[in-house]
Automatic annotation (TrEMBL):
Protein name: Cysteine proteinase 1, mitochondrial
Main location, first listed in the record: mitochondrion
EC identifiers of the protein: 3.4.22.40
GO BP annotations listed: homocysteine catabolic process; proteolysis; response to toxic substance
Function noted in UniProt: The normal physiological role of the enzyme is unknown, but it is not essential for the viability of yeast cells. Has aminopeptidase activity, shortening substrate peptides sequentially by 1 amino acid. Has bleomycin hydrolase activity, which can protect the cell from the toxic effects of bleomycin. Has homocysteine-thiolactonase activity, protecting the cell against homocysteine toxicity. Acts as a repressor in the GAL4 regulatory system, but this does not require either the peptidase or nucleic acid-binding activities. Has aminopeptidase activity, shortening substrate peptides sequentially by 1 amino acid. Has bleomycin hydrolase activity, which can protect the cell from the toxic effects of bleomycin. Has homocysteine-thiolactonase activity, protecting the cell against homocysteine toxicity.
Length: 502
């Protein structure tokens, strides 16, 4: 089994004294109970901010010309370009000696929305479809999945509100449920649930409406209404009589219909999942073609595709995909889940196989060698530059500008809320030297203006520190890793950092 991360115990003065630590007195405690003066000057902790101390600190800080130069530089621009580590950036080249043959184009753009997980997953799904239909460029409709996800999340939210009706409204769990019931974010298992139930459609058949690209006002309206409806359901649940159960049933139907109405008015009615669409297009040879399928049938084609992208390479099927994660706070080789976190109520639960980083990277490389893109989740905002398209743990020299360094490890950053899985993208290549990965090629969904025409480079050190998840086919991992999927998952609370949705 892997290692575990132990949280520090809360301070207990009696325990501390028994271990030889000092109390608030000026004496230390010997093992025999006697006391002696401490080997250092005793000092009470300053509880208030002293203006005299601040003046002394200012004088000391400004006595160094380097600090005065930093203040001048920071006055006119962000500190990030000033402290950029030029030596590190020279090695962050977009050169990779192992890449999948077809990455999928065009570069997509989620705009002002939190739909990265839908863009990353559809960028994976489109690759075998492009091969099947001989397409030079192709994009699946992210808005189609977005539409159904909003309504499914609303239904899931209502059921969790009813299930927690006995808990106080101020409880941590209920407040977490109320915090963001129809967030734009999601996870791999959640998109799999949507595709299994509703399928997929080409982008041309259901393009983005304004509120798909700019989702904040829509989310505010939906959230305000859902909270109002949640309070009504809790009141009905508190009555505990036969009539209240009847009223709850019809109320929930009414509320869900209202949410459906809002989503449809804002995003537009989508193609029906079980009705045939007509998709007309030119293939790479310039031949006009037509496809007639239902979205569910089209989705199955993407999920069950066995197309080999490299000769003699194993096929991959999204139907066998699962999430490997690296969370050093928790036991390795252990299946994890998060309480009351999903979208489709009857869908597969959200699960993570927690493994060491070396195992996760080995699986990603195996997928790339076979020609398959890899969905992954990370904390993209840390040590990255979106203009340059660089994710490098050494991208900034903080010591040069601020006389400090950041010392938390990955487990401590997760536990303290400093880091979480906030963004999903796609890995399409890796550069390997001496049998070890050095840097990775990343397909983002921020349009061509970001990075190198939409492409990012991620150093291997950054991957170790800020990547949490990779979604791989079970055929590309060892039998021991596959066996993790047969475990009864350890349930993390809804507010755990692993419950943050990319």
């Amino acid at each position: 089994m892997g290692t575990t991360y132990s949280k520090p115990e809360p301070f207990n003065e009696k325990v501390a004294l028994s271990k030889g630590h000092t109390s608030k007195t000026n004496n230390t405690v010997e093992d025999d109970g006697s006391t002696r003066p401490p080997p250092y000057p005793a000092r009470e902790r300053a509880r208030l901010l002293s203006l005299t101390d601040v003046e002394d600190w200012n004088n000391t800080l400004l006595s160094d010309p380097k600090n005065r130069l930093a203040i001048s530089g920071f006055a006119g621009q962000s500190w990030e370009p000033l402290l950029a580590n030029r030596k590190a950036l020279r090695y962050d080249q977009h050169i990779f000696n192992l890449a999948i043959p077809e990455e999928g184009t065009p570069i997509t753009n989620q705009r002002s929305s939190g739909r990265c997980w839908l863009f990353a997953s559809t960028n994976v799904f489109r690759v075998p479809l492009m091969k099947a239909y001989q397409l030079r460029e192709f994009e699946l409709s992210q808005a189609y999945l977005f539409y159904w996800d909003k309504i499914e999340k609303a239904n899931y939210f209502f059921e969790q509100i009813i299930a927690t009706a006995d808990e106080d409204l101020s409880s941590r769990l209920v407040q977490k449920l109320l915090q963001d019931p129809v967030t734009d974010g999601g996870q791999w298992d959640m998109v799999a649930n949507l595709v299994h139930k509703y399928g997929l459609v080409p982008h041309t058949l259901y393009p983005d409406a304004f509120h798909a690209q700019n989702s904040s006002r829509m989310n505010w309206l939906l959230t305000a209404k859902l909270r109002e409806q949640a309070l009504a359901l809790r009141k009905l649940a508190a009555r505990r009589d036969d009539h209240s159960a009847y009223l709850m049933a019809i109320s929930k139907d009414k509320f869900l219909k209202e949410i459906h109405s809002l989503v449809t008015l804002l995003l537009g009615p989508p193609p029906s999942p079980d009705k045939e669409f007509v998709w007309q297009f030119y293939d790479a040879n310039g031949t006009a073609r037509e496809v007639r399928q239902t979205p569910v049938e089209f989705g199955k084609q993407a999920f069950q595709s066995q197309i080999r992208t490299l000769s003699r390479s194993p096929a991959a099927s999204p139907g066998r995909y699962f999430s490997l994660v690296n969370d050093p706070r928790n036991e390795y080789n252990r299946l994890l889940t998060v309480d009351k976190l999903n979208n489709v109520l009857e869908g597969q639960p959200l699960t993570y196989a927690n493994v060491e980083m070396s195992i996760l990277k080995k699986a990603v490389i195996a997928m790339l060698k076979a020609g398959h893109p890899v969905f992954f989740g990370c904390d993209v905002g840390k040590s990255s530059n979106s203009a340059l398209g660089v994710m490098d743990a050494d991208i900034a020299d903080l010591t040069l500008g601020f006389n400090i360094s950041l010392g938390m490890n990955k487990a401590e950053r997760i536990a303290s809320g400093e880091s979480a899985m906030t963004h999903a993208m796609v890995i399409t290549a890796v550069h390997i030297e001496n049998d070890q990965p050095v840097r990775w090629r990343v397909e983002n969904s921020w349009g061509e203006a970001a990075g190198d025409k939409g492409w990012f480079v991620m150093t291997d050190k950054w991957m170790d520190e800020y990547t949490f998840q990779a979604v791989v086919d079970s055929n590309f991992v060892s039998a021991d890793v596959r066996a993790i999927l047969n475990q009864v998952p350890y349930v993390l609370p809804r507010w755990d950092p692993m419950g943050v949705l990319a």
